UniProtKB/TrEMBL annotation:
<feature type="active site" description="Proton donor">
    <location>
        <position position="153"/>
    </location>
</feature>
<keyword id="KW-0220">Diaminopimelate biosynthesis</keyword>
<keyword id="KW-0963">Cytoplasm</keyword>
<comment type="similarity">
    <text>Belongs to the DapB family.</text>
</comment>
<dbReference type="GO" id="GO:0019877">
    <property type="term" value="P:diaminopimelate biosynthetic process"/>
</dbReference>
<dbReference type="Pfam" id="PF05173">
    <property type="entry name" value="DapB_C"/>
</dbReference>
<feature type="domain" description="Dihydrodipicolinate reductase N-terminal">
    <location>
        <begin position="6"/>
        <end position="120"/>
    </location>
</feature>
<feature type="binding site">
    <location>
        <begin position="159"/>
        <end position="160"/>
    </location>
    <ligand>
        <name>(S)-2,3,4,5-tetrahydrodipicolinate</name>
    </ligand>
</feature>
<feature type="binding site">
    <location>
        <begin position="93"/>
        <end position="95"/>
    </location>
    <ligand>
        <name>NAD(+)</name>
    </ligand>
</feature>
<feature type="binding site">
    <location>
        <begin position="11"/>
        <end position="16"/>
    </location>
    <ligand>
        <name>NAD(+)</name>
    </ligand>
</feature>
<keyword id="KW-0521">NADP</keyword>
<keyword id="KW-0520">NAD</keyword>
<comment type="subunit">
    <text>Homotetramer.</text>
</comment>
<dbReference type="GO" id="GO:0005829">
    <property type="term" value="C:cytosol"/>
</dbReference>
<feature type="domain" description="Dihydrodipicolinate reductase C-terminal">
    <location>
        <begin position="123"/>
        <end position="258"/>
    </location>
</feature>
<feature type="binding site">
    <location>
        <position position="150"/>
    </location>
    <ligand>
        <name>(S)-2,3,4,5-tetrahydrodipicolinate</name>
    </ligand>
</feature>
<dbReference type="InterPro" id="IPR022664">
    <property type="entry name" value="DapB_N_CS"/>
</dbReference>
């Protein structure tokens, strides 16, 4: 068997960080090189009762080969600069990026392999394709996207909802920016034909739910995905890190990985 890949986890004390660390504990393909956090649990052991790696803010002197980020835009921005300077492949699932950060990611992908996904679940990868097909097949029907997440989520609509909006817009050959409606309140007037609306619920411990309604006269198609366990995202990100390490610099996505691993999309 080949040598384990030296891996950094960015956002290691968070909900996703904990899901990653749980899976990585038993994954012999990786050696955890650093578990980065911003302020919580600094100095505590990563694995309770084990006297090994501790949560830290500092990158190690010996650069990891690949990093997985689920921290947030500020954490991602800082990590990106480090990964670019040290030629560390980067997988990121952080959502809520502004345009400036998206541009920094595009620029960094000239120097390092970089894989971004708003959702690392296999089911959502399939859902995106179904949404694109449905939007194309029913071009005159109304299409809205509903999402629900836990009460600690800080960005809305979710990155996944936006990606589903992009899929729907692509199916219709239009730009999401031209048709998106992010809020409805007051006297909105009738629905703008061809628009793509978003509705958001936040509450409790909902892991992540997405629905796409394609609404015609007298009937409706609903395409839904419910995540009930964060390990699905963590597993997808870990597979992505294993696939990405050692690749040529460039911007990659989950579709590229799935096509490479499973063959062309159906
Ligand atoms: N693509 C996907 O499949 C998924 C994406 N996400 C996205 O991942 C991101 C994280 O989600 P979640 O785990 O719930 O978030 P949490 O708030 O639970 O965790 C955030 C983590 O990032 C760390 N952090 C925050 N700010 C910084 C910073 N400036 N520098 C370094 N580290 C920082 C926190 O450290 P500390 O505890 O010390 O503050 C913590 O470890 C979100 O953008 C979310 O939308 C979530 C699930 C799936
Ligand atoms: O913050 C979360 O929890 C999640 N965020 C991602 C998003 O914004 O789409 C993915 C998943 O739904 C969970």
């Amino acid at each position: 068997m080949s040598r384990p890949l030296r891996l950094a986890v960015i956002g290691a004390t968070g909900r996703m960080g904990r899901a990653l660390l749980d899976l990585l504990k038993d994954d012999a393909r990786f050696e955890l090189a650093v578990a980065l956090a911003a302020s919580s649990r600094l100095g505590e052991p990563v694995y309770a009762g084990e006297d090994g790696l501790r949560f830290t803010r500092e990158w190690p002197a010996a650069a990891p080969e690949v990093a997985i980020d689920f921290s947030g835009p500020a954490g991602l921005g800082a990590a990106l600069a480090h990964c670019r300077a040290h030629r560390i492949a980067l997988v990121t699932g952080t959502t809520g990026l502004d345009q400036a950060l998206q541009q920094q990611l595009d620029e960094a992908a000239r120097d390092i392999p970089l894989l971004r996904a708003a959702n690392f679940s296999l089911g959502v990868a399939v859902l995106r394709r179904l949404v694109r097909q449905a939007a194309a097949a029913l071009p005159d029907w109304d299409l809205d996207i509903l999402e629900a997440h836990h009460n600690r989520k800080v960005d809305a609509p979710s990155g996944t909802a936006l990606a589903l909006g992009e899929a729907a817009a692509a199916g219709r050959g239009v730009s999401l920016a031209d048709g998106a409606v992010y809020a409805r309140e007051g006297t909105t007037g009738p629905r703008q034909h061809g628009s793509i609306g978003f509705a958001v619920v936040r509450g409790g411990d909902i892991v992540g739910e997405h629905e796409v309604w394609v609404i015609g006269p007298g009937e409706r198609v609903e395409l839904n995905h419910r995540a009930t366990d964060r390990s699905i995202f963590a597993r997808g990100a870990i597979e992505a890190a294993h696939w990405l390490a050692g690749r040529a610099p460039g911007a990659y996505d989950l579709d590229a990985m799935l096509a490479d691993r499973l063959g062309s999309p159906t």
